[in-house]
Amino acid sequence: MKITSKGQVTIPIHIRERLALLPHTDVVFELRDEAACIRRADAPRAGAGRGRQLVERLRGRASVTMTTDQILALTRDADD
Q: Could you tell me which residues are beta bridge partners of residue 75?
């Protein structure tokens, strides 16, 4: 892995998933001996797992103006 001219690197997916590093997650770099370590800037709030974080990021972004009943009707067989 190489550092770009802007000082950026891509964090491998297995590390992002293990640490639940979603886009816009604040991280901290620390020096330990001759190594640089990355960690989340703050621990997730109680009950705020990865799924909840994703839902919170998406909340209010929908552009469909359908009611819940209309959306549910789309998921049911027409034969019901």
A: none
Let me know how many helices (H) and strands (E) the chain has, helices first: 3, 2
Element (H, E) at 13: helix 13-19
Please indicate, yes or no, if residue 29 is contained in any of the structural domains.
Answer: yes
Task: Give the tens place of pLDDT for each residue, 37-80.
Answer: 888 887 555 555 777 778 878 888 878 788 889 888 888 866 55
| Mean pLDDT along residues 16-40 | 88
Q: Is 1 within a domain?
A: no
Positions of E strands within the chain = 27-32, 35-40
Residue with tokens 């997916």: 13
- Cβ proximity of 48 and 54 under 8 Å: no
Which residue range forms the structural domain that includes residue 55? Answer: 13-75
pTM to 2 decimals? 0.46
- Per the structure, how many domains does the chain have? 1
